[in-house]
Input
Amino acid sequence: MKLHLTRSDNLYLVQSITVERIVINNQVYTSSVIITPQSIITDWQPRRFADLSAHDLLPLVDLAPEVALLGTGKQLQFPAPHITVPLIQNAMGLEVMDTPAACRTYNILASEGRKVAAALVFEIVDDADPGAKS
Output
């Protein structure tokens, strides 16, 4: 799915997302990332939604966005309450949606100049992992 917004050279914006990759400012990523208008965290650990832990949301706390988004992969899934404890303890809300919807929402908010952070779970399918979803 291609996402069309006028790209500012000062903003990180999602250009497209497919099953295999996400493109941000002409750079291809094939694993989960956290994106803000000014930065990308590429070593974000969850390989799929089932791997998500409370520890994984700590970078969102550090970024202190006014809007925090969680893209949960190909489909909408809600994290267990214990996973969101770091955000609750810091009085932060979290908008949860599938990753393509999170990308679209992120682009709109970033283009509006909002302080937004999107944690995007990008499902990695490992053929050696029998529990991996395709």
About this structure: The chain is about 20% helix and 20% strand.
